[in-house]
Amino acid sequence: RSRIHDFYNIDHVLSKVKLANKILVITGAGISTSLGIPDFRSSKGFYSKLESLGLSDPQEVFDLELFHTDPSIFYSIAFMILPPENIHSPLHSFIKLLQSKQKLLRNYTQNIDNLESYAGIHPDKLIQCHGSFAFATCVTCQYKVKGEKIFPAIRNKEIAYCPKCNSTRLKLLKNDEVSYLPESYGVMKPDITFFGEALPRKFHDSIKKDLLDCDLIISIGTSLKVSPVADIIERVPPKIPQVLINRDPIDHCNFDVSLLGYCDDVASHLCQKLGPKWNIPHPKYS
Ligand code: OAD
Fold first, then answer.
1. Which residues are annotated binding-site positions for Zn(2+)?
2. Same domain for 244 and 106
3. CA 100 → CA 21, 93, 95, 96, 281, distances in Å?
């Protein structure tokens, strides 16, 4: 991507944010780490904690086929990324502030913690590209429950079973018909997009149009390693300024401006510079 506009420092970011009214915000795990939720690929991230599972690639914990073969693997580690409820970070508040100021076109989040909803990001403004823990669905009968219903099982590192299918499952097991029973029979799967699953329709329905409509891109707290979200950056028309806010530099994408640091701090700094009407409300704990 060659630079076609004079846009390379924080003052330019501030002036673009002031002028913009269709900001496309891409977010990842880094916006929730200040709440104690690990990101995925950092040295102390979620994937670094999975060595004992003996997988060839830790990403396999989100592999659909493996989930069907042995759901206990996912349920043995999911507690580590279980989202806290009714809490969000200052960065979530920053996105909410962009929304309140009619500047947010859309927030494409790769996060599955659903904290954007607690922060008050409107469902129309939010694309949860990799689904979320907000709901869970039975892999056998598709019965859906609120995510919280399976949180106790996740905390106990136990497989969550479907309230509708479980009696049949137990009957089949009792009658020694185990050989007919797939491991994942009647298992609840959180509505997270696993590798091997299509992204939610909403993503594909919105992204093309949003790429044409947006007037600024801000990517925050993501390593941009997973497609198709990672590919958004290279699909952006060259005239649209692209800003990175991240703890670590992202070398494989050519951002116009990289504001490196903890995203809560960078956002607070930006808001301070934007003026008194840009107070990030203190996150509510309810
Ligand atoms: P990664 O763990 O790959 O990247 C997180 C990025 O956030 C890193 O570049 C960190 O430097 C940065 N970071 C961490 N804490 C930060 C902070 N406080 N402030 C600013 N930056 C910070 O996570 P994602 O890019 O979100 O898929 O990962 C994308 C997808 O890969 C996830 O959605 C997940 C995973 O497989 C599923 O859950 C299905």
1. 138, 141, 162, 165
2. yes
3. 11, 10, 9, 6, 11
